[in-house]
Amino acid sequence: MPEKPEVLTVVKNLRTILLGKKITECNVYWDNIIASPTTNEFKEKIINQKINDIKTRGKFIVMTLDDYSLLIHLRMEGKFMFRKKGEPLGKHEHVEFILDDDTSFRFHDTRKFGKMHLIEIDKTYITKPLSELGLEYDDKFLTKEYLYEKINKKRLPIKTVLLDQSIITGIGNIYDDEILFMSSINPSRKACDISLEECQNIIDNCRTVLEKAIKLGGTTIKSFTSSEGVHGLFQNELLVHGKAGELCPKCKNTILKTKIGGRGTHFCEICQK
Q1: By three-state DSSP, how is residue 137 classified?
Q2: Closest CA to 193 of 231, 227, 159
Q3: Fewer CB in 10 Å around end: N or C, the chain?
Q4: Cis peptide before 157 (omega within 30 of 0)
Q5: Catalytic pick from 3, 77, 96, 198?
Q6: Is 246 a catalytic residue?
Q7: Strand ranges in 132-242 using DSSP code E only, listed in sequence order
Q8: What per-residue string of b and e applies to 25-51 under the rule 16 or more CB within 10 Å gives b?
Q9: Sheet containing 53-57: which strands, arranged edge to edge?
Q10: Angle between helix 4-18 and helix 196-215 axes, rounded to 10 deg
């Protein structure tokens, strides 16, 4: 699933193509992609809306239109395609926006897990889903005290808790593994056992990992690409994620893989006691 660095890479590319363009037509070929409002309302309201800005909030893409915000969550494999108006539709292209330059801007999603919300612009951040999100990794209010307060009563594994988007938003499975490895914290430890000092380590390493991943365009794993022809390079920098059976870069012990909360988890049992 695309995480914060990948979503930022998507947005960077979309901004170069979409800013200032007007949506003149909208076709929805798989209704479940539209989370709110109804599909018919979505198609009606988005017509003649200009794309004025594109940002992120957590893993959401936030397109600021004239009167609404279009929120897009890529989920597992969502990505975008650009075609000429009238070109045949691809098998997994489920939502199509026709722009005023006759570009066909399409949402491609093999698994059909992606979601779109169209929300009145003044309610963007005070209604679900964005109102439920926690702090961004670079928020000045993300302090060790904030994190400790959020997790010190949770008996779930710290691996699972860091995936909770209501605490720190934008972290997914890949970067979770990397952050905990760099923090020398075993992913199965209960969150309530994490000290205040360790909370600071988690925050510091969260920023280090995500900033480097952002600089490198995110991580390309399996079928994810940010848009056509755009691939991240951070997979070349991964220390433990996807490295089961290889040697730990710190102690040269074998990296292990287990499941925590149903998520594949990579760690070193020596460095992460």
Answers
A1: coil
A2: 159
A3: C
A4: no
A5: 3
A6: no
A7: none
A8: ebebeeeebbeeeebeebbebbeebbb
A9: 34-36, 115-120, 68-73, 60-64, 53-57
A10: 40
- Catalytic residue, from 50, 189, 263, 269: name it: 263
Going through the chain in order, the beta strands assigned E by DSSP cover 23-28, 34-36, 53-57, 60-64, 68-73, 79-84, 93-99, 103-108, 115-120, 256-260, 263-267
Which structure tokens are listed for 233? 């390079």
Place of tokens 């961004």: 136
Contact (Cβ atoms closer than 8 angstroms) between residue 72 and residue 116 = yes
pLDDT, tens digit (0-9, with 9 covering 90-100), for 77-96: 899 999 999 999 999 999 99
Q: Is 59 a catalytic residue?
A: yes
Q: Is 2 a catalytic residue?
A: yes
**Under a CB-based contact definition with an 8 Å cutoff, are residues 4 and 59 in contact?**
yes
- Catalytic residue, from 43, 59, 115, 159: name it: 59
Question: Could you count the other beta carbons within 10 Å of the beta carbon of residue 165?
Answer: 16
**How many residues appear in the chain?**
273
